User: Which sequence fits this backbone?
C-alpha cells in the first residue's frame, strides 16, 4: 500500500492530533525522540508524518504534498486553501476578536486602521459589514500596534485574553470562533479513498462521541 | 547594465524540452479528437466584456483580465473557452454553417492571485464542445473520450468522477431558498464540510428530510454501485430518481466497455452548478492534487444565445498534465539522430550540400566551425579533413556516399 502523508502544524496542534491518531492505532514513536527531523514514519509503516508551519498545512494538502492535514480554521480562512474540510476536531478552539485600548469606538475611526497577522480574514469580515478598513499586515507582537499608534485596533486570535490584559488592551468585538479541522486533498480522497476513508471515519466517530464542544484536553 | 526583467505573477516561459513535451501532448489530443470527428476552431484572444457579463454565474467578474478599447468599451482576455464558442455558433450563417463537434487549443486568462503558481493567470486548455441533441449515447461517448484523453497522454492511474447536476437541483427544489443561500450550501458541500453545513442548514431553517439528504451528500462518493444504492434512500421526488437512473445506465455502459476501474461517482460534486445541467465529470491523476479535466452537459448556456440545441463538452488542463507527465516520466520524446558537419570557409558548399542531404533523411544537422558545439552529436563529419566520427569511432572517408553507407542511410538519389 502507498503511504498516506499527514501534514501537522508544529506545536500544540500536532501533539493533540497525534493523541487522536494514537486512539485509532496510528502511532509515531519516533516523533517523541528528541530530534530536529521534520518527517516521521508511523510504527506500522503505512503513514508518513510531515511537520510544517501552521500557515502552510493548507498549502501542502491543497497541492497534494500531503494527503491529510490538521490545520486551524484561522489558517484555512487566511490562506484560502482549496481542500475538503471534513471534520471539526473540536480542539484548538479560540476566538477571533477585534481588540484595542479600553473605550475605543470602532465607528469613531474612518477608515479604521487594523494591525493583524490575518489581513484576509479581517478584510472579509469588515467588507461583509460594509465597513471601510485599512489593514496593516504584521508578523508578530500585534498588541504593540495600537499602543504605539501604528493602528487604531488589532484583529487577532484570543485564547485566554491574558496577553491583551498585560498590554492594557481589551476585546471590543468578537468576530468568529475557530477550531482545528481535518482537511483532505481533493484528489487523494478520490484516488486513495480505500486507505483514507477508514481513517476519516474512525476519527469522526471518536470526535462525535466526545461531542464537538469539548476542548480536547 | 545587467538586464533583470521580472515576469508578472502567474505566467511562465517554457523552454525547449518542456515546450516540446507540451506540444507532443497537444498533438496527441488533437489526433484523438480528429478521429472522433471533431473539427478545429479558434476564437479571438479578446472579446467584449459584455459577452461574459451577461451570462450569470459562469464567470467570476473579478477574475477577468480587462482592457479598455479605443472607444471606451471594456474588453476581456478570453476568460473561458466555451462561452466564445457558443457566441460563435449563434452567429453562424448559412454561408458558415454551425459545426456541431469541435475541438480547440487555446490560452485562458484569469486574474487569479495564486502566488506560487506559474500558470495561474495564463494557462492552456485543449477541449471538445459538441452541440448535439442531448441523447444519452452522446453522454457516454464524451465520458469515454474524456477517459481516453487522459490515457492517450500515457497516464494510466486515472480516476474520472461522475456527477449529476439535476440530482442536486431536484433536491434543492424541495426548498424555497434564494440563490445566495444555495450558494452558501454549495460552498460547504464542495468542501465536504458536514459540520459547518449542518450549522448552516439549521440557520436557514431547512426541513429535516432535505437537511438529512444534504448532510449525506458529502459522503456519497466512491464506487458507483455502492453510491447509487445509498443514494436511492435519499430520493424525495421523481426528478431525483431520473437523475440516478441516468447515472446508473451510464455507469452500466461504462462497465460493459471495460472502464469500471476508471470511473467513480461523487454526488457531492456541486461546483459550477450554475453551468452544468446534466452529467458532469472531472478527472484526476493519482498523485496530483487537482483535477486535470473538467466537463459536462451545459444546456442552459445555449439558451442565452437563443440556440435551440443541447451541448456537452470538456476541457483538459494541459499545463497540469504537463507537470504530471514530467513527474511520472510518462512520455518520452523521440530523440532523432544528431549530426554536426564541420567546415571552414573553403568547404562551405560541400558542407551545406551534405547537411541538406542529411536533413532529408530526418537527421538533425547543424554546421560548425569549431569543436565546441559538437558535444551532443552522435555523428560528426569533418569535410575539411574528410573524416567522420560516429559514436566516438573516428575514421577517414573518401566520398560522401561512404558517409551515408556508414550511418545506414543508403542513398538512392544518385
Assistant:
Amino acid at each position: 500500500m502507498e503511504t498516506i502523508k499527514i501534514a501537522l502544524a508544529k506545536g500544540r496542534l500536532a501533539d493533540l492530533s497525534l493523541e487522536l491518531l494514537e486512539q485509532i492505532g496510528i502511532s509515531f514513536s519516533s516523533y517523541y525522540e528528541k530530534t530536529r527531523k521534520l518527517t516521521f514514519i508511523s510504527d506500522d509503516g503505512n503513514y508518513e508524518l510531515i511537520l510544517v508551519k501552521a500557515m502552510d498545512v493548507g498549502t501542502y494538502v491543497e497541492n497534494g504534498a500531503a494527503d491529510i492535514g490538521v490545520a486551524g480554521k484561522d489558517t484555512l480562512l487566511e490562506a484560502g486553501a482549496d481542500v475538503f474540510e471534513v471534520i471539526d476536531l473540536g480542539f484548538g478552539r479560540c476566538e477571533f476578536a477585534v481588540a484595542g485600548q479600553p473605550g475605543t469606538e470602532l465607528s469613531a475611526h474612518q477608515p479604521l486602521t487594523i494591525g493583524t497577522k490575518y489581513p484576509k480574514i479581517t478584510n472579509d469580515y469588515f467588507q461583509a459589514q460594509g465597513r471601510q478598513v485599512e489593514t496593516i499586515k504584521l508578523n508578530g507582537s500585534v498588541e504593540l500596534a495600537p499602543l504605539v499608534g501604528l493602528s487604531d485596533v488589532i484583529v487577532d486570535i484570543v485564547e485566554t485574553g491574558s496577553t491583551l490584559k498585560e498590554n492594557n488592551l481589551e476585546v471590543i468585538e468578537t468576530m468568529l470562533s475557530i477550531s482545528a479541522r481535518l482537511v483532505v486533498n481533493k484528489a487523494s480522497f478520490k484516488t486513495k479513498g480505500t486507505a483514507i476513508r477508514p481513517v476519516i471515519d474512525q476519527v469522526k466517530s471518536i470526535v462525535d462521541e466526545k461531542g464537538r464542544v469539548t476542548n480536547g484536553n | 547594465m545587467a538586464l533583470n526583467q521580472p515576469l508578472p505573477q502567474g505566467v511562465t516561459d517554457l523552454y525547449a524540452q518542456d515546450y516540446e513535451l507540451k506540444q507532443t501532448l497537444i498533438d496527441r489530443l488533437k489526433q484523438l479528437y480528429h478521429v472522433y470527428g471533431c473539427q478545429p476552431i479558434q476564437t479571438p484572444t479578446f472579446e467584449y466584456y459584455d459577452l461574459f457579463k451577461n451570462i450569470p454565474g459562469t464567470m467570476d467578474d473579478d477574475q477577468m483580465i480587462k482592457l479598455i478599447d479605443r472607444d471606451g468599451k471594456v474588453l476581456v482576455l478570453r476568460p473561458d473557452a466555451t462561452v466564445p464558442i457558443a457566441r460563435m455558433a449563434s452567429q453562424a450563417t448559412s454561408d458558415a454553417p454551425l459545426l456541431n463537434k469541435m475541438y480547440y487549443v487555446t490560452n485562458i486568462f484569469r486574474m487569479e492571485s495564486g502566488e506560487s503558481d506559474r500558470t495561474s493567470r495564463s494557462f492552456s486548455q485543449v477541449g471538445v464542445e459538441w452541440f448535439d441533441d442531448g441523447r444519452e449515447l452522446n453522454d457516454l461517448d464524451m465520458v469515454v473520450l474524456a477517459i481516453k484523453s487522459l490515457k492517450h497522454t500515457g497516464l494510466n492511474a486515472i480516476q474520472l468522477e461522475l456527477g449529476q447536476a439535476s440530482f442536486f437541483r431536484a433536491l434543492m427544489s424541495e426548498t424555497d431558498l434564494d440563490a445566495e443561500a444555495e450558494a452558501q450550501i454549495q460552498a460547504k458541500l464542495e468542501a465536504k464540510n458536514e459540520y459547518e453545513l449542518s450549522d448552516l442548514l439549521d440557520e436557514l431553517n431547512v426541513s429535516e428530510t432535505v437537511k438529512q439528504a444534504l448532510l449525506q451528500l458529502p459522503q456519497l462518493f466512491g464506487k458507483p454501485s455502492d453510491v447509487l444504492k445509498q443514494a436511492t434512500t435519499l430520493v424525495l421526488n421523481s426528478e431525483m430518481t431520473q437523475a440516478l437512473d441516468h447515472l446508473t445506465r451510464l455507469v452500466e455502459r461504462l462497465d460493459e466497455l471495460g472502464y469500471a476501474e476508471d470511473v467513480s461517482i461523487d454526488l457531492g460534486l456541486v461546483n459550477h452548478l450554475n453551468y452544468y445541467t446534466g452529467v458532469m465529470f472531472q478527472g484526476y491523476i493519482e498523485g496530483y492534487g487537482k483535477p486535470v479535466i473538467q466537463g459536462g452537459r451545459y444546456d442552459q448556456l445555449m439558451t442565452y444565445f437563443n440556440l435551440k440545441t443541447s451541448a456537452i463538452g470538456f476541457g483538459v488542463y494541459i499545463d497540469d498534465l504537463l507537470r504530471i507527465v514530467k513527474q511520472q516520466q510518462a512520455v518520452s520524446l523521440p530523440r532523432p539522430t544528431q549530426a554536426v558537419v564541420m567546415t571552414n570557409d573553403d568547404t562551405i558548399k560541400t558542407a551545406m550540400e551534405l547537411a541538406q542531404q542529411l536533413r532529408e533523411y530526418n537527421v538533425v544537422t547543424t554546421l560548425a566551425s569549431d569543436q565546441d558545439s559538437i558535444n551532443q552529436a552522435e555523428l560528426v563529419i569533418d569535410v575539411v579533413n574528410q573524416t567522420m566520427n560516429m559514436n566516438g569511432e573516428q575514421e577517414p572517408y573518401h566520398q560522401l556516399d561512404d558517409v551515408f553507407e556508414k550511418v545506414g542511410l543508403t542513398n538512392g538519389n544518385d
